[in-house]
Each structure stands twice: as C-alpha cells, then as structure tokens.
C-alpha cells in the first residue's frame, strides 16, 4: 500500500516569514532569518555575522561563479591534505594571520605576562614525558643547546607542577612527522616544572625553515608571491588547573625572517638571545663549556586574570564598533533587551 501524504510529510510546516523573490539586496536578510532559530544566542550571532560578511564579500568583489568554484576546490584540497600528523587547515589559518588574531582575542595577556603565538601545524600528542634535565633530541647534526627555564605567575611566584610541552624542528628544518620513516617522536617532549618552577632540558639550536609548500597553502603563497619561511624558533605550551593555557614560541634574534614570519607569529617580547655555557654552569648541568645556552622566564596569567581582561576587551571592542551586546558565558551576543 502506498504511503499517504500524512505518512510522509510533517503534520504542520514550521512557521516561516513569506519568502519574496530573492535578489542581491534581500537574500542576506532572508538567510539570516532562516539561520537564527537554533535557540542558542551565541550560535545565532555567529551565523548572522558569518552570513553578513560572506555575502558582503561576494557583493563587494562581484565574485564570479568560476572564482567561487576555485575557492571551493581549494578548500576541498586543503581538507584532503590533512592527516593525523599534518593539519593543512591550521597552516591556512596561520598564513592568513587568523590564528594569531584569534589567540590575541581569546587569550589576552596582562602586560607582565608572556605573550602567546601560533600552535602551528606540527604539534602532536605523542611526545614522551621526560624527567627534567633530559635530552629531547636525537639529531646528532644539530648544534647542542642547554635550555634553563622557569615558570611563575604574574606576581612572580614560582609555579610547580605545570605541564610543559616543547617541540622544534631538526637541524635540517623538518619536524619528525614530516618523515615517512618516522618511528617515534623526536625533537619534542613533555616535562613538569619542579617545586621552584624550574625545568631544564637539552636540545639543539633552533633553525629557520619553510612551511610545507607541497599542498594548496603552498600554492596560494606562490600565487601571492609570498615567501614560505619561518625564523628560527622553539615551541612551548603550558597547562595547569587555574592557569590560562599558554601556547607560545621563542624566536632566536637575528634571523633573516624575524620581521617577515610567514605565519605572523613573531612578537618583540618573544625574540631572545642565545648565550654560551660558562664553566660553573657546565659543571652544574653536565654539559661542555661553551655549549649554546637559552635562559628564559615564562610568566603565566591565571584563568581569572585572562577571563576578566577578555571580557573588558570584548565589551570595549563591541562599543567601538557601535554594536549593542552583552556577554553570555563570556562571549558577546546581541543585547535585545
């Protein structure tokens, strides 16, 4: 027996505004209306702004069908390039400056705290947990480096028990995950700060390198006639309950790409000098005198400090843009009262 109409259709269609003939001028309003019924004020706001800006982009540029199809193909290829050890979409976000912008918005830092930088596409979750003082390198071609670091709060109190994730490229400018023959993590580790907030490790001198250019992001950089290079650097990520998570990078002063990082990750406060290990330090840490030395103090904000600063920044930014908003779960939504 064939199904009846009542078997196949809802008993009553959702109430919707009448849809007139859609035009360049009225389609945005109608799409926003259709996308604003989730019951989630933040989701509705995100969709309203996304639709508005994307539609305005198309109108302002008079976007052609062939250009939009090329963009769709580019995004499709970007997704196809992703794997468990390579995130092409993060790389795309990085080279567009979006990663740095979002980090600056979501994790603002009080003036005396260490500033953030990009995560990058090559962080992994399989780095070994090593005791303080260990070597995280297997690269015998790299120049040995001793890193002596401390971590404290914004008042200068040492922070013990902080999880510190550290990773860098090898001496040829490649991360371990870029090798098809990778058997185990290298040039990366996880440590935990001691009772005095200290952690130290042995590594190699960071080197500069080009980001991968064998995918759609590399082709985009070529079309834009942009270089693909990053200055020499080492990544750090800090986590502990009650602290605002910090993802940051230390850059070695004097690199030729210091002022033109392809992913816009360099900040003046994150550019550091390398020294050489003296006789006393060599004896204390068991490394040869003259070894490269990196000393750095990381200052972490509390979750509350960051939350309060983010709220203030958000409301001030909304005010400057002439938007009437309120905060729900520390995120702006339209204030309709």
From TrEMBL:
GO MF annotation terms: catechol 1,2-dioxygenase activity; ferric iron binding
Domain Intradiol ring-cleavage dioxygenases: 135-288
Cofactor: Fe(3+)
BP-aspect Gene Ontology terms: catechol-containing compound metabolic process
InterPro entries, per the entry: Catechol_dOase_N, Intradiol_dOase_C, Intradiol_dOase_core, Intradiol_RC_Dioxygenase
Ranges that cross the membrane: none
Domain Catechol dioxygenase N-terminal: 40-112
UniProt keywords, alphabetically: Dioxygenase, Iron, Metal-binding, Oxidoreductase
Pfam families: Dioxygenase_C, Dioxygenase_N
Similarity comment: Belongs to the intradiol ring-cleavage dioxygenase family.
Protein name: Aromatic compound dioxygenase
Organism for this UniProt entry: Trichoderma citrinoviride
């Amino acid at each position: 027996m064939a199904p009846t109409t009542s078997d196949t259709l809802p008993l009553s269609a959702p109430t919707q505004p009448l849809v007139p003939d859609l035009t360049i001028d009225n389609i945005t309003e109608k799409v926003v209306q259709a996308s604003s019924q989730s019951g989630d004020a933040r989701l509705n706001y995100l969709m309203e702004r996304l639709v508005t800006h994307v539609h305005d982009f198309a109108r302002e540029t008079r976007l052609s069908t062939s250009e939009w199809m090329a963009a769709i193909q580019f995004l499709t290829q970007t997704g196809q390039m992703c794997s468990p050890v390579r995130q092409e979409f993060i790389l795309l976000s990085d080279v567009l400056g979006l990663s740095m912008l979002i980090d600056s918005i979501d994790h603002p830092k009080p003036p005396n705290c260490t500033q953030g930088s990009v995560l990058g596409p090559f962080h992994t979750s399989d780095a070994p947990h090593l005791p303080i003082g260990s070597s995280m390198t297997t690269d015998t071609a790299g120049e040995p480096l001793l890193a002596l670091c401390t971590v404290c709060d914004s008042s200068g109190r040492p922070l013990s028990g902080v999880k510190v994730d550290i990773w860098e490229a090898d001496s040829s400018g490649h991360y371990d995950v870029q090798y098809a023959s990778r058997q185990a993590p290298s040039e990366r580790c996880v440590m935990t700060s001691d009772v005095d907030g200290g952690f130290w490790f042995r590594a190699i001198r960071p080197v500069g390198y080009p980001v991968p250019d064998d995918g759609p992001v590399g082709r985009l950089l070529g079309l834009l006639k942009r270089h693909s290079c990053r200055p020499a650097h080492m990544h750090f990520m800090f986590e502990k309950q009650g602290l605002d998570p910090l993802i940051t990078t230390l850059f070695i002063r004097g690199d030729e790409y210091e002022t033109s990082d392809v992913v816009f990750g360099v900040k003046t406060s994150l550019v550091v000098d390398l020294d050489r290990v003296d006789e006393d330090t060599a004896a204390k840490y068991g490394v040869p005198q003259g070894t490269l030395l990196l000393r750095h103090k990381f200052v972490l904000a509390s979750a509350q400090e960051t939350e309060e600063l983010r709220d203030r920044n958000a409301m001030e930014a909304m005010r400057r843009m002439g938007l009437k908003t309120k905060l729900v779960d520390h995120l702006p939504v339209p204030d309709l009262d």
